[in-house]
Amino acid sequence: MSNGTLLLVALALPFLGSIAAGFLPTHARNAAAVLAGSVAVAGAGIVVFLYAGIADGEPVRLWLPWLPMLGLDFTLRLDGLAWLFAILIFGIGALVVLYARYYMSREDPVPRFFSFLLAFMGSMIGIVASGNLVQLVFFWELTSLFSFLLIGYWHHSATARDGARMALTVTGMGGLCLLIGVLLIGRIVGSYDVDQVLEARDLIVDSSLYEPALVLILLGAFTKSAQFPFHFWLPHAMAAPTPVSAYLHSATMVKAGIFLLMRLWPVMAGTDAWFYLVVPAGLVTLLIGAFIAIFQQDLKGLLAYSTISHLGLITLLLGLGSPLAAVAAVFHTLNHAIFKASLFMAAGIIDHETGTRDLRKLSGLYRYMPFTATLAMVAAAAMAGVPLLNGFISKEMFFAEAVAEHTGSLLDDSLPYWATLAGVFSVTYSLRFILGVFFGPPPVGLAHRPHEPAHWMRFPIELLVLICLMIGIVPSLTVGPVLATAVSGLLESAPPYYSLALWHGFTLPLLMSFIALAGGVLLYVALRRYLESGIEGPPLLRDFKGQRIFEKLLVTISWQWARAAEAALGTRHLQPQMRIVVALAVAAALSPFIVNGAVGAGGLPGSPVAPAFALLWAVGIACALSAAYQAKYHRFAALVLVGGAGLVTCVTFIWLSAPDLAVTQLLVEIVTTVLLLLGLRWLPKRIENVYPSRPPLKVLVRRCIDLSISCSLGGLMAFLAYCLMTRPVPDTVSRFFVERAYTEGGGRNIVNVILVDFRGFDTMGEIVVLCLAALTIFALLRRFRPAPESIAAPEQQRVQNAYDEAEPDRSPGDTVTDYMLIPRLIMNWLFPVIAVFAVYLFIRGHDLPGGGFAAGITLSIAFVVQYMASGTRWVEDHLRVLPLRWMGIGVLTSAATGAGSWWFGYPFLTSHFQYLDIPFIGKVPAASALLFDLGVFFLVVGATVLILIALAHQSLRSSRAAQAAEGGD
Amino acid sequence: MEIILSIGIGVFAASGVWLILRPRTYQVIIGLSLISYAVNLFIFAMAGGGLRVDAPPIIASGTAGDPSALADPIPQALVLTAIVIGFAMTALFLVVLLAARGRTGTDHVDGREPER
């Protein structure tokens, strides 16, 4: 297996594991944990295996073309930088899984938790291993989605839901900005491929689109990495289960933004715009985060704000734009991931064992859980930057960079002071974490007596703290090579000289470290009384709540503006909407004439006018106009008139050489009329005299507008039709069909050959539409509730039944039977005739007008005629009609005919024909298309009959309902 | 011929549009039928070679057809499909109309009677 494929496996494993975990039983806690753990360990194993090649400077690549012409391919690319993140994602992921196994309660649906966690892990790997920027954004959005699910895992809690929603809104908006930014980059460079983008620094920086792209990409990165002013979502995400916080806010989610900044650092950093956008954001985040962290009363809140502060530190370093600062940024990313994960886990243990995270309630826990306390203290010391721990070295590098000269501006010159101040704050909040929780008097009022957790729950912290110590004491032996690989991946060139040694002599950074440590202790002592007073929130900034602004904004946009827009633009009336649609259509059709100038009729002479044709259309026009006039009050008349218009259409088709259309139109006309007749029964009685005198002015104006709209549309359509008919039509594919219909399709009726052979796939889709429409109608009518006043038997039936009941020798229904006696006899006899005619239409279809559609509708008419003559009950006692079966057989026959050509190695629906010599009959054409047409025939019969019967049955059902209602009274 | 057919198409379309702008569902359904006649005829009239009388697209046995002697089959094939789909849509709309009438008690397109 090549390295690229291995990388693909590492990416796919978490997603596959996620699906598998989703199918586990709800309380299979151990199985899910083992599954998730083995996926993470396997992924880490693969990533470690890939290290050798990457350390030599050659990224692992995999390229699977998808839409190469759009520059969208599935590309994987794992270089040194991505490798470092990948190992953090899988490594810390494995530890989090182990921890979560003990942390999660037996009552929670734990497999779902692991399913989300694995999917999140896969999305993170997708971000770091993407070799295509659009693909990166795709995985970026996936992390937003899965983090939403993870933060909201305890969805019964309102804070969890709010926190999840806020995180999704903020990071999702950022993701959108990022997508646009990436598209701009693609436009500048001409490719989304990371390799090509990384080589195009000059192109990008000199482009006029550089600033917009930069701002958009930074918005994406800053929202994800919780930089000021988008930091407020992170503390609210603490409503998530602690393993989620430990994972998302140490090594993964928030580091995605950092990763993006690092990924694009070689091509976007080092400009003034970059410096003045990134450095202030990082600096403000660093200071505000650290300051607020000091005053948190919630253990996880303290860690959350400290995370914000550390992310600010990394962002600040990346903003400086110097290679050495980038080295420090990478190193601090690694260190922060390690100590912050262990601190979150420790906080989770404290919460788990004491039942609270409130610093005002916790104290003196050292005597109950000395091991955990010791581990947490070491990790907190790393966070504070105490020597011999990993945090010290990277913080030292940060101080050195703060001192170094970058742009020479006031901001740059003041950096050392700000950096030291941030160091002071971080020492203070670390001290508060340690002293507040583990020392002091024994806690009072806890739910139960705290004790050490299960050993395996503590194991991840032990391992992480051990790594903190190893990096802190012998950095060059442990982390040196990995850091070098990562840095060369980031810089796309050989790394600058840097020393990972613990001792650099008495330097300015060392002095700053010392001041920070001493200052932090002093500040803690000074603030101690204030902190013990138990006031929530930091001074000065207490009333500034990002969350409140965010919610205000949401309410404004999604409620106030939406309502205003709805009030201004929305309507619950259909007619104004239709008016706008039609008017827009007219305007759109007119616009070419306005833009390009008016045109007149074309030059073709046209065919001579036949008087009969003119007369025919005079009738047609009269029918259409009177139908429009009568449709409101005289429904039946309107139906007859529309039928007249349909017949005129039908004759026009015959006249103008379209026999197939005429046949189909005529048959459809019959069925439609029957259908509408069946429907008329359920419509309300007409409203007489809505406007007793004359309609109000408003109504008249509305009618005038409608009249002008419809007249202009009609006039435009007539004009267009005339213009087009008097112009020659360019050569179309018609020639192809006409020339090949017989020689290749084996049929003389070209229209039919097109439908069942050349464009068979279209017809297939069409019959499926018909099928779906019929099924929808069937489903709608199953739950049909007629209006109360339509339930009673129609007036005519009532009169007849009353007459029958009055006569002693008649039973109800006799009158109608008598009336129908002769028609019924004829119609019953017509059944075989119509059926034979349908078969005839079907067989001749390939050569002469006819075909599956026409034959199908004809046969369904044969059925409907029986229903009309004898009534639903009689027909269903004598004839088993199973329209659903007909439809099923039809679809399957057509599909099987189409699929049959696969058997012979041809594409779907390739047809074959030959002439069979049948004794006594002679040569008969036999095309596989005929079989396809048979499917069409079956389906059309089934669908049409189903529609008509479903509607006809309603009167049976409702009369039953009416009887039941009467019986109940 | 062309001018008559164009005027006919125009009138069908205008009547249909007038009806779909009306407030009662039955008017809308009648209007849709008229519009579909108009549109089908419009498409049909776009045939290459213009309107032809006595030239149905049916060829003699065993030959390749001559495009200049026959009516254009493509618009016919398109319209044939459109007729069938139009039928399905009319049926579906009719049932939706009836269901809405049963549920809301009115046949107004808005699902409720306008306030007067």
Automatic annotation (TrEMBL), chain A:
It is found in: Cell membrane; Membrane. Residues 65-114 form the NADH-Ubiquinone oxidoreductase (complex I) chain 5 N-terminal domain. Keywords: Antiport, Cell membrane, Ion transport, Membrane, Transmembrane, Transmembrane helix, Transport. Pfam families: MbhD (PF13244), MbhE (PF20501), MnhB (PF04039), Proton_antipo_M (PF00361), Proton_antipo_N (PF00662). It is a multi-pass membrane protein. Residues 130-407 form the NADH:quinone oxidoreductase/Mrp antiporter transmembrane domain. Residues 701-798 form the MrpA C-terminal/MbhE domain. Residues 620-685 form the MrpA C-terminal/MbhD domain. Residues 822-945 form the Na+/H+ antiporter MnhB subunit-related protein domain. Its main location: membrane. It comes from the Bacteria. The chain crosses the membrane at residues 31-53, 82-101, 113-131, 137-154, 166-189, 209-234, 246-267, 273-295, 302-320, 326-350, 371-393, 417-440, 461-486, 506-527, 580-603, 609-629, 636-656, 662-683, 704-725, 763-781, 825-843, 849-869, 881-904, 924-951. This is Monovalent cation/H+ antiporter subunit A. It comes from Ancylobacter koreensis.
UniProtKB/TrEMBL annotation, chain B:
It comes from the Bacteria. It holds the Pfam family Oxidored_q2. It is found in: Cell membrane. Keywords: Cell membrane, Membrane, Transmembrane, Transmembrane helix. It is a multi-pass membrane protein. Gene3D superfamilies: 1.10.287.3510. The keyword Transmembrane applies. InterPro entries: CPA3_antiporter_subunitC, NUOK/Mnh_C1-like. Its main location: membrane. The chain crosses the membrane at residues 6-21, 28-47, 77-100. NCBIfam families: PRK09094.1. Belongs to the CPA3 antiporters (TC 2.A.63) subunit C family. This is Na+/H+ antiporter subunit C.
